[in-house]
Amino acid sequence: MLNTVLIMLLVPTAGLGARYNSHMVKGWSNSDCVRPWQQAQMSKPTLRIPSRAIECHPDDHNCPAGRNPVCQYSLRSQKYVCCEDKKDADIPTCPKYYETLLLPCGNSVDSQCPRGYRCLGSLGDDSIKLCCKPNRTLEYREPEHTFRENRIVPRLLPIAPAYELIATFSDEQISMGQLFDASIIEKLADPPIMSAGVELQDEKLYTIILADATSKAVTWLVANIAAFDGQLEIHRRTKSAVSYQPPDETDKPVGMHTMILALFEQHDTWSQKDLARIAMDDFNFGEWLEEYAHVLPGQPLAATFYGYSTKKDDRKRI
């Protein structure tokens, strides 16, 4: 007697197929988490079972503790899984004076958002579309908003400073985000004169660091700085752990360099051994602050950022 095999072919309806083939869903297909700034919380691997996304139920709130954990339906796995923010995630927000609903909405289609919301490009990255609701009463805290708007925080600096660091180069007080092109790069030849925007404590010690976020290099570092009458005691005789390196039009890579100048109030005194171990190349603020958490807090007391551009290299490659 012949065995009969019954094959059931499930064909999705046209509406469901269109939804699964949408631009928005295709963008999520390589992740269990709908929000691109999140990742799945993974189980610990065992000898028998590899690590996998932790399953959950949306009504039970049973995801492990983490960075804003949430139970989401995975279009890839076809089940509910636990998601959390990626480490140092650059969580998008709506443009200024719009409330943010962290709901991606694809190709700027307002109909994908709740009533009263519009589908707009996020602040600092127009390619990420979010549902946004206009609200002119919103208030923004500075300097955090400017650091986030320019994607300095958290992409380059984990936490925004409490205050803006006032820096003056060649008698010119710079503004956050100011760009010096190659024709005026000589204005940055000497270290800046700085004011923290807040009175410093004379019994505390401070660290100043200047990092080129483009080339990932430390270009100035002064540690164990004393304060006098609420101001930094930095002068030409102050010994630097890393001497100030002025920008040059021949710097690599060619183009614009983003500079971050930050002031930290120290927990403890830097040892010469720790200062000697700091990686001056391939520098990362987050890793540096994590490694030396016994000396520095995670948040700068004050900071600013600016940029300079080099001349374009017109030489032909051989």
TrEMBL record:
Keywords: Signal. The keyword Signal applies. Residues 1-17 form the signal peptide. InterPro entries: Lustrin_cystein, PEBP-like_sf, PEBP_euk. This is Uncharacterized protein. It comes from Caenorhabditis briggsae.
